[in-house]
Predict the structure of DNA polymerase III subunit delta.
Amino acid sequence: MINYEVYEQEIEKGNVKNGYIFCGLDEELIKDGISLIIKREVSEEFKELNLIRIDGMNTSFDDIMNACETMPFMSAKKVVVIYRANFLHEKSDSTGTKIYNDIKKYVENLPPDTILIMYYLLNDKRDKPNKNKKLNTTGKFLHVVYCDKLKRDKYLKKVSEVFKEKGKQIGKVELMYFCEKVQSNFDIIKREADKLISYCEGREIKKDDINLLILNSNEDDIFDLIELIATRKIDKAIDIMKEILYKSDQHMLIISAIEKHFLRLYEIKIKISKGKRLEDIISEYRLPQFVCEKLMTQTNRFTEKQLMELIKICVKTETKLKSTGIDKNMEMEFLLINTLTVKK
């Protein structure tokens, strides 16, 4: 298993292998990595014939094998990309398990003129690919690329390239400030860059523009906190709560964010029960697909009754925090402990 930076260096040297598995939380970073191979191995002239994309959530082994076995047209190589290959998750349904077992045997002898690329998204930042037995097995024949967070200099350079590709320059100071404010996810980074570029059309981007358009967010920390509440790991939840308070000593904003998150989970759970699907949630909340998928997954960890009770606990804590003469940190810890009393 190699990280993104090592992978990028290998591609720059022209050291392209016949098979890859990408995994990580940042789908845009994964797509950027895959595009390095596509640009190098597939000419624009014959791209439609020598680049095959397959939805890993709606495919079969036969579809994948047939795509790999087809000869490239007027080219030495052909690229087959299986996106959202959820059958690579350590735990998958019976259909996914069957696809994986067939692919596991097939990749031992891939056609030499085919480059097979598969990727899947990790569930959260605690999901470690080196513990995935499926990757350890297929990794003997395919190169596994773990797209984790980039090192600071590499990260700054890559974010700068996002602006350059969109035809906009950003100063070094403003770039660093932008990177501090925005979430470390290239789907979000590209969206926020678009907003800034549109707002600052015809002039330079300033720090005031970044402050105006990009709000500070503890969303990732709040999501992790809710996940620990769902799994009743309150000791770890308290540790994360302390980290959040250390970064931003604003108890009312944090309790409001937790309450809002539970409310959103409740709303999504109701919508799902009424037949709403992923695309409906994306449209209604105007959030990136990966965010909506994470929210929908998290709703499954709670019942409607639990979410209603958790919202009530948040409201009670919020009321107490408005009082004077109380230990606010202690009240936040009591909030987490009280979640243990909520039953399904």
In short: The mean pLDDT is 89. The two ends are 40 Å apart (CA to CA). The longest helix spans residues 251-273.
